[in-house]
Amino acid sequence: MNHIILFWCLLITIIAYPQNEERFAEMRKDMVNKQIIANGIRNPQTIKAMLKVPRHLFVSKEYLKRAYDDSPLPIGYNQTISQPFIVAYMTELTRPSRGKKALEIGTGSGYQAAILAEIVDTVYTIEIIPELAKEASDRLLRLGYKNIIVKTGDGYAGWKEHAPFDIIIVTAAGDHIPQPLLDQLAENGRLIMPVGPQWSAQQLILAVKKKGKIEQTKLAMVRFVPLLRSQ
Ligand code: SAH
After folding, report:
1. At what angle do helices 44-52 and 84-93 cross, to 10 degrees?
2. Which atom of ligand 1 approaches the CA of 87 most closely?
3. Is position 230 within any domain?
4. Looking at the whole model, is its pTM more than 0.90?
5. Is residue 94 part of a domain?
6. How far apart are CA 53 and CA 115, in angstroms?
């Protein structure tokens, strides 16, 4: 009797699995059309990556149905996975392409790292909460990303051993851009970070290194969780 029940459960799972994945792919397409392209994202590689990366596998079961919503979602430890548009917007601004090396501060779920890793050669990403770093690292390995290297630590100091970086993306807000990150930016490299007060609106800043000098541009207002500091 138990064998028969088990057989049916297995059969239903096997039949339902591709349908679920198809449904999520449809939701993803919808997200890209309504939230990403409709709001002005044009970079073809960014759009391709947003269509490909299974965002529903970066959220807990509790939020599965809302994985493609136009909003950030909790990932535990008081942290969030960013709103899809913000991920696409920041990605496009970094001008990602093959041959580039990126550094992300604030791995969180690993979603932003995966989007970048679809386009650039290597993504180094630092997460200060060890549990989140471990979860993201396991998830990214499971999904087959061999070009993402996750480390636990305070990203304020950057990752000197692998510098300089063509792209630096900070996905937590601070009251200034950390000097070590500016130092680790390559010539013509692009850094993007939300700068402003904690738990309030911050301004996205784009910093570009030209002939060793930093040129800053103020962009959209955003809301990110704070950049924490290890003591
Ligand atoms: N990029 C993530 C979302 C970022 S949420 C994603 O795609 O899911 C911000 C993350 O930054 C949180 O996980 C938080 O723990 C982490 N963080 C905060 N301060 C940090 C610091 N100084 N160094 C590294 N990570 C930090």
Report:
1. 140
2. 7
3. no
4. yes
5. yes
6. 7
Q: Which residues pair with 191 in a beta bridge?
A: 168, 207
Active site residue 82: yes
The catalytic position among 60, 71, 82, 200 is 82
Q: Please give the distance, rounded to the nearest whole angstrom, from the Cα atom of residue 4 to the centre of ligand 1.
A: 47
Angle between helices 2-31 and 44-52 (to 10 degrees): 160
Does residue 89 form part of some domain? yes
Neighbouring C-alpha atoms within 13 Å toward the C-beta of 145: 29
Q: How many domains does the chain have?
A: 1
Whether 228 is in a domain gets the answer no
CATH number at residue 170: 3.40.50.150
Question: How remote is the CA of residue 129 from the centroid of ligand 1, in Å?
Answer: 8
**Structure confidence at residue 199 as a pLDDT band (50, 70, 90):** confident
Residue 112, domain extent: 2-222
- Read off the pLDDT of residues 29-54 as tens digits, 9 standing for 90 and up: 999 999 999 999 999 999 999 999 99
Amino acid at 55: R
